[in-house]
Amino acid sequence: MRTVKWLSFLSGIVLIVCCFFPWVVIESKNLVISGMESTGTSFGKPGYLHLFFAGLYLLFLMFNRVWSYRANIFLAALNAGWALRNFVLIPACEGGECPKKQLAIYFILISSLALLVLAFFGGKLSSKDADIQ
């Protein structure tokens, strides 16, 4: 595999793993919010959508077809938008209480943006270059 595919795979794994780590801590309510656990808030479970997008991205990364590269650009853009939304909305100050951002929410944003950038350099984008058999 090319280096870009390995970096994409690594970024996808980092994104998936960081969904299980704490994103923010709200000390006044003793809440630790992660992508999978957000009890006591109205955030839902934002990590599930990251898992879905990253899982499909990693699956399509294994195919050497034009449609899979194009789908990866689309999935990476959706994932980056969702990560930006989570980075802005979840640690936002509310009612005079500002949650403390944890390291995982930064890694979520960085790895999502890395997936987006690497998706553009990932492979063939024209059908005449593809190995269509």
Structural notes for this entry:
31% of the residues are buried. The chain has one domain (3-124). The two termini are 20 Å apart. The model has no long low-confidence stretch (mean pLDDT 88). Helix content is 55%, strand content 8%. By secondary structure, it is mostly helical. Strands 2-1-3 form a three-stranded antiparallel sheet. Helix 1 packs antiparallel against helix 2, helix 1 (3-18) packs antiparallel against helix 4 (103-120) and helix 3 runs antiparallel to helix 4 (103-120). It is built from four helices and three strands, in the order H-E-E-H-H-E-H. The protein is elongated, with a radius of gyration of 17 Å.
Features:
3 strands, 133 residues, mainly alpha, 55% helix
